[in-house]
Structure formats: structure tokens, C-alpha cells
């Protein structure tokens, strides 16, 4: 210990406390494990993770376990130099003061985070997310170094997403609620408006003309650190830096650059695992495979033929069911029993 007198700490936890911590980690991490295993969006996994943890906070507040998530996981600026309390710098970003608080953050993470993930790829996106949350917590700690007041929320990470998007693809248009209108706004306009509002609020508080329990400096810190590092992190991403989106990115729509990157990652269909296992396809399955090779050079046609093929074939290893799954824009066939048996093309 370094003398940070705060309870609870790891040394004073009971068996029920460790159970509560284990459930917290399971709830927070489960969406990411599923996303990695199934190749789905990490941004949407983050949204689900934050929602599940908020629900778990409600359960704890109802007294089912004698454990305070805010007491143990929130950021305490005065204790950041205590190794036993170091987890708070990260875990605080999964806590929120209520549903309005968490919904405000996941709105940004979903609407801006999903298209940014399409641009950067999931690994780079998650690195930006962590940089944003750390930037927010570091900024708040530097401003309030002696504070024992808990700080919590994913706002720094959410603003980090805006900062990174602003740095790399400012002209993308995404559906976003701004000035009471939900429409496709340029990223630079969304970022400038949200950042300007934060600076204005900080100025009002500094002048003694207002009071807020919102950590505006954490928002600014997350934005600026992600903005400063984003272009370095985005090198080699699926989309070239500063590529101008030719259509609005909303829902399942993507920019031409993202689509081209997905097409390049479709994988070869010149050979197949059934032939390789000595189990030549026959009849309808063989016809579909032939059409797949003739017409499967576009995302949509490849997906259509792979979905039909999945209905006609079985796993060449275990004879189990085969199912198609979208990994971003790319369709892949998997064995229902194990990805190690079949993952093609």
C-alpha cells in the first residue's frame, strides 16, 4: 500500500465480494468473447457490455450482494498511484450513474463507433476506445489530484471515438442526433459541435456561472488523446486515411473503401475442404459450388451462393451441420461443432 486510505481494497475482500467481482467481469467480458468468436462488431459488443454492467449495478443496488460496484471499481483520483487501486483507471469506464448516463454514451459508441470500426477494423477500434477512456481518466485525475469523489462513465471513450474519427475521416457522414435533427452529418461537424459544447460548459463553470457533476475535462481528455494518436494507429487500416466516403455510412451501408477492403478479404474459392478431404461434392452441391466459382467475385453474390451451399453440405471433418456467418461484409462457412473443423473460404 502507498497510504491511500480507501475501502474496500483487495486485501479486505470477502468471499461474496470476489463472487460479485467475478460476475462483474463475466458480464462485462462475455459480449467481447462472443464478438471475437463469431467475428461480429466489437463496437456493438461494447454497447451490450455497458448495458449489461449497468443492469448488474441495478441488481447490486437492490441488495442481492453486499458489494458496491462504484465503491470498488470507480476512479478515485487521489489513489491512482496505489498499485492495489490501479484497476479503477479502466473499470470506471464500465460504470454509470444511471440509464440516462449510459444511454448518452452508447448513443455515440453505436452511431459513430460502428462506422469507425468499419473504417479501422476491430483491433484498432478497441485500441482507440481504451486510449479514449484512459485519456479521460488521466485528464480528470490531473485536474483533481487529491479528490476522493468517485468518477465513472465511458464518456472519455465515447469522445475518443469522435476524436479519432475526426482525425482520420472527418468528411464521412453518419446518422446522428444534432441540433434536434437526426440526419447524416459530417463527422467534423458532429465533433466540433460536441467539443465546443464541452468547452463552453467548462468556461461557464470556471466563471462561476454554473455547476455540473459532469466530468467535462474527462470528455476533452479522451477526445484529444485519441485525436492525437488516431492517425498513427489507423495506418494500415482497411480504409486509407482521409478517404472521402462516397455515400453516407449508416446501418449496413459502407463507404467504397470499406467495401473494396472487404472484397479483397473474401478469400480464395479455387480449392475447397470437401475435395481436400476426399469427399467430392455431387448433385446440387456440386452445381452450387460451380456457380459460386463462376459468380462469387462480388460480396452479395458470394454470400448468396455460400448460403445455398450451406444447406446442401455437411462438415468434411465431423459430418456436422454447416452454417454461414457474416464477418463484417464477408460471408464464411463454419462447422456448427467447431471452427477448427471448417472455416471456409
Structural class: mainly alpha
Low-confidence stretches: 246-254
**Biggest sheet record:** 3 strands, antiparallel
Architecture per CATH nomenclature, i.e. the level-2 architecture of the largest domain:
Up-down Bundle
CATH evolutionary superfamily of the largest domain: Rhomboid-like
Helix content: 40-55%
Task: Report what the structure shows.
- The chain has 14 helices and five strands.
- The protein has helices at 15-38, 42-61, 69-73, 88-91, 99-111, 113-120, 122-143, 155-168, 187-206, 216-234, 256-264, 273-276, 283-295, 299-310; strands at residues 173-178, 181-186, 322-327, 330-335, 343-344.
- 54% of the residues lie in helices and 8% in strands.
- With 345 residues, it is mostly helical.
- α6 crosses α7 (122-143), α8 crosses α9 (187-206) and α9 (187-206) packs antiparallel against α10.
Amino acid at each position: 500500500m502507498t497510504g491511500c486510505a480507501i475501502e474496500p481494497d483487495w486485501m479486505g475482500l470477502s468471499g461474496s465480494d470476489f463472487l460479485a467481482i467475478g460476475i462483474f467481469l463475466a458480464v462485462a467480458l462475455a459480449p467481447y468473447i462472443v464478438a471475437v468468436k463469431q467475428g461480429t462488431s466489437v463496437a456493438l459488443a461494447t454497447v451490450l457490455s455497458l448495458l449489461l454492467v449497468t443492469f448488474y449495478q441495478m441488481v447490486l443496488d437492490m441488495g442481492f450482494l453486499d458489494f458496491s460496484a462504484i465503491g470498488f471499481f470507480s476512479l478515485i483520483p487521489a489513489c491512482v498511484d496505489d498499485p492495489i487501486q490501479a484497476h479503477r483507471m479502466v473499470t470506471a469506464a464500465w460504470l454509470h450513474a444511471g440509464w440516462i448516463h449510459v444511454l448518452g454514451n452508447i448513443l455515440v459508441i453505436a452511431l459513430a463507433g460502428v462506422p469507425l470500426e468499419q473504417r479501422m477494423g476491430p483491433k484498432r477500434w478497441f485500441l482507440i476506445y481504451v486510449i479514449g477512456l484512459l485519456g479521460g481518466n488521466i485528464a480528470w485525475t490531473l485536474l483533481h489530484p487529491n479528490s476522493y469523489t468517485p468518477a465513472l462513465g465511458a464518456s472519455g471513450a465515447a469522445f475518443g471515438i469522435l476524436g479519432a474519427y475526426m482525425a482520420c475521416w472527418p468528411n464521412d457522414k453518419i446518422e446522428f442526433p444534432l441540433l434536434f435533427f437526426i440526419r447524416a452529418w459530417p463527422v467534423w461537424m458532429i465533433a466540433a459541435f460536441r467539443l465546443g459544447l464541452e468547452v463552453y460548459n467548462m468556461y461557464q463553470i470556471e466563471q462561476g456561472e454554473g455547476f455540473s457533476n459532469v466530468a467535462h475535462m474527462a470528455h476533452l481528455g479522451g477526445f484529444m488523446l485519441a485525436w492525437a494518436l488516431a492517425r498513427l494507429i489507423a495506418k494500415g487500416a482497411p480504409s486509407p486515411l482521409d478517404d472521402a466516403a462516397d455515400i453516407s455510412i449508416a446501418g449496413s451501408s459502407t463507404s467504397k473503401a470499406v467495401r473494396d477492403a472487404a472484397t479483397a478479404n473474401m478469400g480464395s474459392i479455387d480449392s475447397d475442404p470437401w475435395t481436400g478431404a476426399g469427399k467430392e461434392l455431387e448433385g446440387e452441391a456440386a452445381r452450387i459450388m460451380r456457380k459460386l466459382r463462376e459468380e462469387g467475385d462480388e460480396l452479395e453474390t458470394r454470400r448468396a451462393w455460400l448460403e445455398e451451399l450451406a444447406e446442401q453440405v455437411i462438415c468434411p471433418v465431423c459430418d456436422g451441420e454447416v452454417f454461414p456467418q457474416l464477418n463484417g461484409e464477408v460471408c464464411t462457412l463454419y462447422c456448427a461443432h467447431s471452427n477448427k473443423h471448417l472455416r471456409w473460404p
